[in-house]
């Protein structure tokens, strides 16, 4: 399970870190209060701020960091049952983890849906408009095309239901970079069997690790990259990680706008 804290080392602010979180820096988006950016009622009145944020998060503006590549390495080794992410930055996909291994619980910019005729389209269809500061519109009915990001009050993607089968099957749960404050995502942390070790890697102790810890819980506090590097070293995977990061970094040229 991962959240915004795994992408702060890639340069994307989280929501809640005081002073440097996204919610503290949303003034530039011309919205009445931070949460409005993900509210449908506000979006239909003024979709611009959301698309300004979308433009910021354009794939290619940011790169996966060691944490994403650690998860990719788990997949390469056949150890990743599933990656449940709250992030909408697409860096899990960018790290090379296939979509079949992902549950993007709060949605994705990889696809979009017309708000009027509900026609679905791939992300490539709307990015040109977003990058040119235009609100993308449907080719069929001219309705506003909304990227498949889950707004407040919207149902989670159907794939989220995979948790019903995944969590009882897991024999280790690793939780990285999340405040475990957003439901129903946060409660997944309680979905593994009570005998299954849970490892929290985060800046601070959060959620059930604070108020209802289990006997086999492990908590590693501090910067996520530092903690992951430490874990990788303990696993004896340092060389492999270095090779993977080198290969992937050479592959994806950074897009500078
Ligand atoms: P959050 O509530 O902002 O919590 C982030 C957590 O990560 C906090 O506990 C921080 O202390 C911790 N953290 C931040 N940086 C580090 C670091 N370098 N090392 C270790 N820990 C760190 O974010 P959540 O994901 O828990 O909240 C869910 C929201 C945030 C979802 O709806 C997301 O869509 C949303 N969000 C996503 C992104 C993104 O896609 N990158 C960015 C900002 C917000």
UniProtKB/TrEMBL annotation:
Gene Ontology BP term (one): positive regulation of oxidative phosphorylation
Cofactor names: Zn(2+)
Superkingdom in the source lineage: Eukaryota
CDD domains per record: SIRT1
Function in brief: NAD-dependent protein deacetylase.
Family, per entry: Belongs to the sirtuin family. Class I subfamily.
Protein name: NAD-dependent protein deacetylase
Gene: SIRT3
């Amino acid at each position: 399970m991962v959240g915004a804290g795994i992408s702060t080392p890639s340069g994307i602010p989280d929501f809640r870190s005081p002073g440097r979180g996204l919610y503290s820096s949303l003034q530039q988006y011309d919205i009445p209060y931070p949460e409005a950016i993900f509210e449908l009622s506000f979006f239909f009145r003024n979709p611009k701020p959301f698309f300004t944020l979308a433009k910021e998060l354009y794939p290619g503006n940011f790169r996966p960091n060691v944490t994403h590549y650690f998860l990719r390495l788990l997949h390469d080794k056949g150890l990743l049952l599933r990656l449940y992410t709250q992030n909408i930055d697409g860096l899990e996909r960018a790290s090379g983890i296939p979509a079949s291994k992902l549950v993007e619980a709060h949605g994705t910019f990889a696809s979009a849906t017309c708000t009027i005729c509900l026609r679905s389209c791939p992300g490539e269809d709307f990015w040109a408009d977003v990058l040119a500061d235009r609100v993308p519109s449907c080719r069929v009915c001219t309705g506003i095309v909304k990227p498949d990001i889950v707004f407040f009050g919207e149902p989670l993607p159907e794939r989220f239901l995979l948790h019903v089968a995944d969590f009882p099957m897991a024999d280790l749960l690793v939780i990285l970079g999340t405040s475990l404050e957003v439901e129903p995502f946060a409660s997944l942390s309680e979905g593994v069997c009570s005998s299954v070790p849970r490892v929290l890697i985060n800046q601070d102790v959060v959620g059930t690790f604070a108020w209802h810890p289990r006997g086999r819980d492990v908590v590693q506090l501090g910067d996520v990259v530092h903690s992951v590097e430490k874990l990788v070293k303990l696993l004896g995977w340092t060389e492999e990680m270095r090779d993977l990061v080198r290969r992937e970094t050479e592959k994806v040229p950074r897009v500078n706008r």
